[in-house]
Structures are given as C-alpha cells and as structure tokens.
Write a structure and sequence with these properties.
By secondary structure, chain A is an alpha/beta fold. The first copy, chain A, has 11 helices and 19 strands. Chain A has a 5-stranded mixed barrel with strand order 6-9-7-8-12. A 4-stranded mixed beta sheet of chain A has the order 14-16-18-19, covered by helices on one side. Chain A has a two-stranded antiparallel sheet with strand order 5-13.
Amino acid sequence: MIADMAQVRPVILSGGSGTRLWPLSSNDRPKQFLALTGEHTMLQLTVERFFKKPGFLPPIIISNARHRVEIERQMRDIGLDGMSLMLEPQPRNTAAAIALAAFRAQPDDILLIMPSDHVIADIEGFRLAIETALPAAERGFLVTFGITPDAAETGYGYIRKGEMLFPGMYRAGQFVEKPDGQTAQLYVTSGEYSWNAGIFLFRVGAFLKALASHAPDIFDACREAVDRGTSEGECFYPDEAAFCRSSSVSVDYAIMEKADHVAVMPVDIGWSDIGSWDALHAYLGGDEKGNVLDEKAVAMGVRNCLIQSDGPIVAAVGVENLIIIATADAVLVMPRGESQRVKEVLEEVRRKGR
Amino acid sequence: MIADMAQVRPVILSGGSGTRLWPLSSNDRPKQFLALTGEHTMLQLTVERFFKKPGFLPPIIISNARHRVEIERQMRDIGLDGMSLMLEPQPRNTAAAIALAAFRAQPDDILLIMPSDHVIADIEGFRLAIETALPAAERGFLVTFGITPDAAETGYGYIRKGEMLFPGMYRAGQFVEKPDGQTAQLYVTSGEYSWNAGIFLFRVGAFLKALASHAPDIFDACREAVDRGTSEGECFYPDEAAFCRSSSVSVDYAIMEKADHVAVMPVDIGWSDIGSWDALHAYLGGDEKGNVLDEKAVAMGVRNCLIQSDGPIVAAVGVENLIIIATADAVLVMPRGESQRVKEVLEEVRRKGR
C-alpha cells in the first residue's frame, strides 16, 4: 500500500452471541472469545490481522458493554494497546453497530468492517484485495468482499455478481439469505455467486448517506447516541436511551440489499466462520488419523474425531467419526456431519430445565 | 430366622480403592461411595441389606480412616445409626481387615463378611442362604457363598465344589484366581465351579484358629492392633504401628485356600460386583432403546448407550453402543464391550501427566 493512499480503519464487530459451538460457546462466552484454531482467540486473531501494518489505523472494536473486561484482558494478553472500544448497552445488530463507528469517524475515513469470529488464512491475499478495492471505496462504493464458495452451504447468504465495475469487482446483484440445498448448488456451479461474509470496505460519508436514505431511524438513533455518548479512557459509551431506539437489523438487510453503489469483490482468502464443529474439523484438517485433538484429549485407537475441551480430560478409546466437546458443565457427543443440530440439542437441554 | 438362633453380625469391608469405574470412581472416591444403581450408594445398600432385620446385629464397617467423614455422611443421609466403624490407618487387604473385626468380637459370634461394593438383587434369597449356612458356621466351617456363574468371566476367582457336606453346601475344593477364557468356559459348563465373591460366614473362633495357623503374622499384628487400639464414639482406631506390621494379603490367599473346614454354598441371588461400565449396563438392563441414562443425560436418537455423570450435562445425539461417563474433571467415551480397558486408559491419562 503506497504511502499517500488513504489509511484504513478496521472496525471489528464483537457483538455476536452464537451458540453453534455449544458447549464451548455460550451467550456469556461467544465464539470470538474462544481459542479454536490455535493459541489466540478469534478476536485476537482478527485484531492482529492488520495491527500496526502499513496503511492501517488502530482498530475500533464494537462490543456489548458486558464483555469489556474480557476484551481488555484478551488485548492485554497479546500485548496490544491503542484499541478504541465502543460499548453497546444492548445488542442492536450490525447496522447500528457500524453506524456507531461511522458517527465517531470523519466523513472521508475508510472503514474496514470485519466480524470478530471468522478466520482468514491468507492475510496477504486479503490485504491485496483491500488495496485493490480502495479506489472504489474512495469513489463512494460500499464494497463487500464476497467469499468464493466451495460447497453448497445453506446457512450463508449469497450475493450475485452484477456488471463488472473494475477488474475483479462487480456491482452487487441479488442478495439471497440461506437458500435451500438445490438452489445453493445451482449458485455454486453457476460461478455467479459469492458468500456474504459480512466484510465491508467503504468511505464513512457513503455509508452514512445510504443509512440516512434506507434506515433513517438507525441513522437518527445512532447519531444521537454518539453525540450524547461518554468517553472513559479507550472506551466510548453511546447514550443508552438513544441507541436503544435504533432498529435491530443487519447491515445487509438495512442497507446492502437496498443501496445503490454496492459492489462485490469475490475473494478466495482461506476464510471460514467456523460456524459448526464440523467446520472446525474441516478447517483444522486433522492429523494422520484424521483427528483434531486438543491438549486435553487422550485418544487410543481413535480415528476422524474432533475432541475439544476447556477443562476436563477427555479420554476416548476405539471410537470413530465423533465430535466430543467437553466443559466442566456440559459434554456433547455426536457423529461428525451432524453438528448443524447443536442448536436443536441446546434447545432440548434447556427444555429439560438444566 | 427363628428367635433362638445365633444372631449374625454383618462385617462390611469398605477399604477398596478400585478405579475400574473411572472417571466416576477414583482412589479418593471408590466404587462403594457411588450411587450407581439408584439413589443409594453401594455402601448404603450393603448396610441396609440386613439393618435391624430379625437375626442380625448392627454391622461393623471396616474402612480406611480417611473415609470416615464420607461414611458417616452416607449413613446419616439414610438415617442409620448404631454402626461400628473400624478405621484402618493404612490398607492391609482383606485378611487383616477381617481379623480386626474378629478380634473385636466374641469367640462365638457369627460374622457375615460382605464387600461394600457389590449389589445383590435377591436379598431374601441371600437371607435364606445365610440361614441355611448358619449351622455349618456354628460347627466351625468357614462358609463362602459362591456365585453361580452365568458367563466365562476371566476377572474373577473360581471355587470348585468338593464333597457335599450338607444339602446345598460343599467342601471347598480348588481355588483358581482369574483363569484364562478357555478355562473359565470349561468351569462354567462343568457346573462344578462358583465365583468367589468374597462373602463369608463363620464363627469368630473358627476364623481366628485358621488365621493363627495359616497367617500368624496377621494374627499377631491384628490382635495387638485391637488390644492397643482406641475408641472414639462409634469409631475404633487400631494401633497403627501394630496394624502396619500385618501382611497385606487377601483372606482367600491367607486362609480360604489353605484352611480345612472351608465350605462353599453356591447361590444365585442376583449378584453383581458392577466391576466395569459394561457390567453396570448389563445389571441395569436399559430402557426400551437399550439405554441406561442418568438424570444428567440428554439423549436424542441414542441407542444401547450407558451415560453417567456426576456433574456435567451430557448431550448425546445419534450415537449407538457407547459408554459415556462424565465428571467435571474427566470424560470417558468408549464403545460398549471395551470397558475392561478402563485401567489401561487411566494409565495412559496418568502417563501423559494429567
């Protein structure tokens, strides 16, 4: 990235509360706070991705206020400082979260929106894509980095490529949320669709203009929340009453599916949202026996298993193709390939009143 | 049992420290302290078996001193009192443990020795067997209740029947410890052998005479340990220095295999030592799907599994023929039929330094 180019401010969305990786993840300990792929948590990996790299400004992390201590602890653990934290009093989904960052920035700032709970193996490829997309963002396009799909996933949103705007970048066509399996297969084979990974690059002014036009209540609520907010060291607290008036919708639904000047740049950067235990097994690959084991696992005659624990020793003997996840409070045992059922399992656990 | 017959004093051996039911059992929490078959622990069930029943005196429990609090708690929980506790400073196996009880009793007392970690489904059948065996015990026989075998188990000791002494009672022939599978099968089909369950009935004088003859060091050490011991409420502490001079051998090895006047009475009383997770599954039988689940289990599409937990919820989905045992510290997952490997698993866990 050449020196006189605009600097990019990463904005890291850490408000998620998924439970697809139960029992390791929970509403109190969402996925971004877990070290699933190595020593560092997904939030730490996301912050480190462009931290103090040429062309990048220090990031803003947007999170629920109750996770402040955990985030500060995780940043301290990896020796990073200079974060800005924007702490939401209540979750209001991604449109409002991004709006908070936009109102704290200057109109010509370039923001790079990244979820905190995705992994990207090819960081240099991602950096090159950002560099390539910068001119479009500076010209007012809301750029989404679409992931080139490698399977007919039904859990993702898909974006169709429209006309080519620049080499490698297209006007965004139709957005389709969670198609059925047959449709997803058609999308993948057509080569016309990318997964929507929620990674965006835009100029603040362009975003706020689209927000005012397509989601004025979010615009008003978040502008007032920032105007009336309070700073405390590196933390910024939006005004609670104002912020809670905002609609709670995704930025895709509020803006990207509706605005003009939305562009999609398909990328192939080793992305995964580690959206299930099977996805983690696939991402990490497995040893010569096909196992993904953490240090708590004691495996004897075990093949093609995923074993993860945040506390108890897990001794597995003579089993194959199982997912075994253990915490001091709950243990999950299921065959590989079934991990989309975790939500259903968790509902059953809760239904039984435990 | 008719009123003028000798009363029987149960002596319950609670010194065991097995780990075959790891991770629920451990040296700190051996099997007899676990509630494996219902609400009550195996020790509680053993004490309750003849508690305040006609013909039976209050029991003596012999245990390691460090388990005193746990035993007192378990007795209080089921509202039992009047126990005598004999608390060993160090474990010295069953010959010495039984000797302690014998030296505390009168020469003509009849003792019923029972391990604390076996289940007996047919208590009335057991009581009838005791009643039948009493005359032989009174005449000086050391009676062992042999379990009629229903499988070629290689983990047990076998006792061959000798000449018939009374209807249903035989002089004990050869004792064979843990035969190989082929030999065990021959024993079972011959009808000549019973399992040695460590359940004995004898007059104190007869036992001590045999002890003096075949294990004089145990006799001397335990007599002195009782002579110099101290009482504290319901508890009796043998003298440590004296007791620790005793050999540490089983009563089978020290006496039963060597003494004259050893009799075996084969019984079929729904006995199990719950010596493995598979044995627990077999004993409890399973529901209409073949599952044995405890209250911590949440099972969806699960068949023929054993799931036990002393803490964590265990959610199992779509698995079959598995043993899943969970504590806050360790989780075991293995196929049914493999639970003899628990010891090997535990060694591997320890080898890895956890």
